[in-house]
Design goal:
Elements lengths: L1 H49 L6 H30 L9 H4 L60 E4 L4 E5 L8 E6 L3 E7 L5 E6 L2 E6 L3 E2 L1 H11 L1 E6 L3 E5 L8 E6 L3 E7 L4 E7 L2 E6 L3 E6 L4 E2 L12 H11 L11 E2 L3 E2 L1 H10 L9 H4 L4 E3 L9 E6 L4 E10 L2 E7 L3 E6 L5 E6 L4
Antiparallel strand pairs: 1-4, 1-7, 2-3, 3-15, 4-5, 5-6, 8-11, 8-14, 9-10, 11-12, 12-13, 16-17, 18-23, 19-20, 19-23, 20-21, 21-22
């Protein structure tokens, strides 16, 4: 009996030890699973920390799973402990599986974080444009320049011809050297070309209402003619009265300096006001003319009419003819006040003095002393080569001198702006004439 009781006690003891062993084993497995789950969560958390863009809800879900698992384990442990204290000894071995449900073995989502991969595009710093810098290129338009009023001279012609000749050019009645002379042109004159002869050797022209033919060789055309005309043109007035007073001041009460006549051009020095223009007549003679009696524009010299000498008139002395031809060869030359060098620049008295000196004829230097040289002659008795003098009322003495070339014309160094030109000797009122050649 006693042995049976001891066997039963030993069995109970052994049974209790086995039960405790199973409980310990179950708790150990639960603990290890908990550690594994915590490790996996930590690993997942580490990945999350390294990936800034993983959504935070994944982390929350992981922690909820872990907490739930731990709570369940604790409850099961409590239940096991209670059973251990109250349950009757049983020969059935406790099922570790029943008493300890395995924790969820699902691993945390192994999906790669949804963080977008870094873009392979280059940084958005704009690449330098291949276009040229936006600096505007200079406009192709020509810079605006003030209009050259001298170009208005071109409006006076339909088909401009510009005369280029060393001396003078005859205008003839027919396209032949045997045609009658009807006019004369000098260097710098402008003509309108009306037609061309059949042999292309003669131009049919009009200038100052003188119509005829001139030889082609002495005429510039086209762009060359236009440029020369603009360079040569000057502001001038033509007189619209038989005789016009030139006054010392721009008022009708001022002193009359000179008188000018129709048919010639006079250089305009200034546009004084709406009623008066200041003009340059010749040499030192200047003055004012009323606008209402003149036409003001840019001009070129034109043709002068030719009047043949009467048959009964004696032939011109060859010396005189040579002198005036030499004088006319300087037409177009420069006027320089005080100048005495032909071909470089001369004033009115210097021009006459130097031309005569080429033929051994000496006269004084200034116009107001030259007027005493030689012998006086009337205007009706003048011969080519005689000198014509003009009075300057402002100075109270002679103010200009010219050389008579016949046919009512004279050659003279007119002014700084006009240079050496040919005009009618009635270009202004002559004072007297002198024969300084003696023949």
């Amino acid at each position: 009996m006693k042995d049976n009781i001891e066997d039963i006690s030993l069995k109970k003891k052994n049974l209790s030890g086995d039960k405790l062993l199973y409980m310990w084993f179950g708790l150990t497995i639960v603990g290890m699973l908990g550690v594994l789950i915590a490790f996996l969560i930590l690993v997942g958390s580490g990945k999350t920390d390294s990936d800034e863009t993983e959504p935070t809800e994944d982390i929350t879900v992981s922690f909820v799973d872990e907490t739930t698992t731990e709570a369940t384990s604790e409850e099961q442990t409590a239940e096991v402990t209670t059973e251990e204290a109250t349950a009757e000894p049983t020969t059935e071995e406790p099922s570790a599986v029943e008493t300890t449900p395995e924790p969820v073995t699902e691993e945390p989502t192994t999906e790669e974080p949804t963080t977008p991969e870094p873009t392979t595009e280059e940084p958005t710093t704009p690449e330098p444009t291949t276009e040229e810098p936006t600096t505007e290129e200079p406009t192709t338009e020509e810079p605006t320049t003030a209009y050259d009023p001298r170009r208005s001279v071109l409006d006076n012609y339909n088909n401009l011809g510009f005369i280029v000749v060393s001396n003078y050019l005859h205008i003839r009645s027919t396209p032949s050297t045997s045609g009658d002379i009807v006019g004369i042109l000098y260097t710098g004159a402008g003509v309108d070309i009306l037609d061309v002869s059949a042999d292309n050797m003669w131009y049919h022209i009009n200038s100052n209402d003188i119509e005829g033919y001139i030889y082609y060789e002495y005429v510039a055309l086209g762009a060359i003619a236009e440029k020369a005309a603009c360079d040569f043109a000057y502001p001038a007035v033509t007189v619209n009265a038989q005789i016009l007073n030139v006054r010392e001041a721009p008022t009708t009460e001022s002193k009359i300096v000179q008188q000018i006549t129709a048919g010639s051009l006079y250089y305009v020095i200034e546009e004084t006001n709406e009623s008066w223009l200041k003009i340059e007549i010749g040499g030192e003679i200047q003055g004012y003319v009323a606008r209402e009696f003149v036409t003001y524009s840019y001009q070129l010299p034109g043709a002068l009419p030719y009047t043949p000498p009467p048959p009964e008139e004696p032939a011109i002395n060859p010396l005189r003819l040579e002198i005036i031809n030499t004088a006319m060869s300087y037409v177009g030359g420069k006027y320089v006040w005080g100048g005495t060098t032909l071909g470089v620049g001369v004033d009115c008295s210097g021009f006459c003095q130097q031309v005569l000196l080429l033929y051994g004829i000496e006269i004084p230097r200034t116009s107001y002393t030259q007027v005493n040289a030689g012998v006086p002659v009337s205007f009706e008795e003048m011969q080519p080569g005689d000198l014509i003098f003009f009075w300057n009322e402002s100075l109270g003495r002679i103010g200009h001198v010219a050389m008579y070339i016949g046919d009512g014309k004279m050659v003279h160094a007119a002014s700084e702006h006009r240079g050496i030109v040919i005009d009618y000797y009635t270009y202004m009122t002559p004072y007297c004439a002198r024969n300084v050649i003696g023949e």
